[in-house]
Design a protein that fits this description.
Largest sheet: 6 strands, mixed
Number of strands: 13
Shape: globular
CATH topology of the largest domain: D-Maltodextrin-Binding Protein, domain 2
Strand content: 15-25%
CATH class of the largest domain: Alpha Beta
CATH architecture of the largest domain: 3-Layer(aba) Sandwich
Radius of gyration: 21 Å
Strand order of the largest sheet: 2-1-3-12-4-13
Number of helices: 14
Number of domains: 2
Length: about 350
């Protein structure tokens, strides 16, 4: 009896002292992995407990999130680090996970930055690597290269003529290919862009997708890249604002991908969710901690706890059948991607 009680005591103690775990649906070195490690370092100081990074990569970065949903989320110390590719898959594919089943801890209202090599003329042709979450980038590139007043079919034809979308490259391969000039356009999350693209001598900032204005549901400029939001760059080149069915489809997937690009989730009803959210708030309220994050990610707004629901509500308002159908059509016909 004494041994049984001792075992139970040790078991309960070990559970109570278990480290928190960040589930990252990418391999080590991916953009989300980079961001997760930056945030974990600051968050674990406020939690007073260690955070372990567990990478679960897979096709389109879906398996890691599916595994969280199906078998890991009931662990009271497991936190899902979801990213934009997950949000795009939620919008266009059949997945197991569902954002509305979870407790939002917080997110960084981020965007994606696109750079190009200044030693080439992109009008001669774009060479860009495919990957998880990159479809909105290639749609934006098609809009910029092909110009205004086109139907989705005309954009598709121009895309096939002007853009080489190279499939099968991993993150490290893509970055090396850009460094060598085999690719002439790159894209990264804000943190990974500062870490990788900025170090390429021939790189220049092309555009930022801009960030979500939660109140209006529209795009606002990226203060880290002033004058370089997609809409600003487009209007400067073509003398008019982007419009049309193809643009609306791009805007829909861009908003999902960027607004949920780096977000933290725990299971609904998780007893530790409030504690983790308060610890994250303590990070955000700590200027020194926040400055350390901003130094590596750029200065982007944090949205915490229940306020994340305002983000998902804004995304739902943007979701129209016409935009979603055009998006699915392009992903299928242009990129050869399976959609639900």
């Amino acid at each position: 009896m004494f041994r049984k009680l001792l075992f139970l005591t040790l078991f309960v103690t070990s559970v109570a002292r278990a480290d928190y775990t960040f589930i990252v649906p990418q391999p080590v070195g991916g953009g989300t992995d980079v961001w997760a490690r930056i945030v974990a370092k600051e968050l674990e100081e406020k939690l007073g407990e260690k955070i372990i990074i567990r990478n679960i990569p897979g096709a389109n970065d879906v398996p890691g999130f599916n595994e969280f949903h199906n078998s890991l989320r009931k662990d009271p110390k497991t936190i899902m680090v979801a990213h934009g590719g997950n949000a795009e898959s939620f919008l266009t594919q059949k997945v197991d996970y569902n954002y509305f089943d979870y407790e939002p801890v917080g997110l960084m209202n981020l965007t994606i930055i696109v750079g190009n090599r200044k030693d080439v003329n992109l009008n001669d042709g774009v060479k860009f690597a495919a990957g998880s979450g990159m479809n909105p980038d290639v749609m934006a590139i098609a809009l910029l290269i092909c110009g205004p007043d086109k139907t989705p079919k005309e954009y598709l034809a121009c895309y096939k003529d002007k853009i080489t979308y190279v499939k099968g490259m991993k993150g490290g391969e893509r970055r090396m290919a850009y460094l060598r000039g085999e690719l002439n356009v790159t894209r990264e999350s804000s943190a990974a862009y500062l870490k990788h693209a900025k170090k390429v001598e021939q790189n220049q900032d092309w555009f930022s997708h801009g960030v979500l204005d939660i109140q209006s549901g529209l795009v606002k400029g990226d203060e880290n890249y002033p004058g370089l939001s997609f809409q600003e760059v487009y209007e400067k080149r073509w003398g008019k604002k982007p419009t049309g069915d193809f643009y609306n489809a791009y805007l829909l997937v861009k908003m999902y991908r960027d607004a949920l690009q780096k977000s933290l989730w725990m299971d609904k009803g998780n007893p530790n969710a409030k504690k983790v959210t308060l610890a994250l708030k303590a990070v955000v309220d700590d200027k020194a901690a926040l400055d350390r994050i901003y130094e590596q990610t750029g200065k982007y707004e944090w949205i915490l706890g229940d306020d994340v629901n305002k983000v998902t509500a804004a995304l739902q308002r943007l979701t129209t059948g016409e935009a979603l159908n055009t998006l699915k059509w392009f992903l299928s016909e242009g990129i050869g991607q399976q959609v639900k």
